[in-house]
Amino acid sequence: MKQKISVTIPVFNEEKNLYTLYQRLIQVLVSIDHEFEIIFVNDGSSDNSKSTLNQIAEENPCVKVIHFTRNFGQTAAMMAGFDHADGEIIVPMDADLQNDPEDIPLLLAKLDEGYDLCSGWRKKRNDKMLRKKIVSRIANKLISKISRVNLKDYGCTLKAYRKSVIKGVKLYGEMHRFIPIYASWEGAKISEIPVRHHPRVHGKSSYGLERTYKVLLDLIVIVFLDNWVYKPIYLFGGFGLFNFFIAILAFSYATYLKFYKGIDYILTPLPLLTTMTVITGIMCILMGLLAEMIMRTYCEAQKKKAYLIRETRNIGKS
To answer: 279 and 169, same structural domain?
Structure first.
């Protein structure tokens, strides 16, 4: 029995692209002879995307539509799509027609080979900004180095997942690009293939270079989650003990200067350094203990969503 496919699409001010995307998706999905559904998540669009999506949902009951109360960002929109997907295979993609629906069968073919996740690689990107391409290339290499998950294009939305490898994943900030890393923590077998990337025809991208610093900060979070999420005291406490070590060195050297060189404590900054590092050390250890308590609360009681839904279409009907 062939597995059901859920195509999830975050939408933000893409009214001119939606119907074309829908028609092309239907052609591809019907041709591969799988049961399927398409989930559009309207992330607080201010154009006519809402009415266009509602019209598409009326035409085809296989199309689900989720309207947010406001703009929550691409990560929250992707999370909503995952939460409401019924398929065993989830294929997220962009709504701007830069991803090609005809690449979906190629991604599915890799899953049939035994992979749990297949990621698209925009080998020939059609973005106008050269700086954006260069920054993206550097970021991808940095993420691969730090995470030890070697992908050439973390930013490509077009991927195919077995639902089992992302079940229970909670995403915040700009974390959607790091889903392969989460999957690798679950032991997922990951592959990557080149996919087509078309130039944008209608509308303009809502993402610029200012997103880079958010990605870098989220990468720090990923490193923390990978190494210390269940034992944050090791990070904070380790830094606290390091400060205590500096304090001991500073005080010892200040004492040496006083008794062997005749230099009084007040004539050097070492006593001040000792005091600061001791205080910092104590604060770090207390923060570590606090983080331990918060982590336990999070693991036991965290059920909050990263988005709010205003209304839906065709949800619960399939």
So the answer is: no
The string of pLDDT tens digits covering residues 97-124 is 999 999 999 999 999 999 999 999 988 8
CATH number at 79 reads 3.90.550.10
DSSP result, the chain = -PPPEEEEEEESS-HHHHHHHHHHHHHHHHHTT--EEEEEEE-S-SSSHHHHHHHHHHH-TTEEEEEESS---HHHHHHHHHHT--SSEEEE--SSS-B-GGGHHHHHHHHHTT-SEEEEE-SS---S-HHHHHHHHHHHHHHHHHH----S-TT---EEEEHHHHTT----TTGGGGHHHHHHHTT--EEEEE--BPPP-SS--S--TTHHHHHHHHHHHHHHHHHHTT-HHHHHHHHHHHHHHHHHHHHHHHHHHHHHS---GGGSSHHHHHHHHHHHHHHHHHHHHHHHHHHHHHHHH----S--EEEEESTT--
Q: What range does the domain containing 251 cover?
A: 232-295
Please tell me whether residues 217 and 242 are part of one structural domain: no
Segment 154-165, tens digit of pLDDT: 888 999 999 988
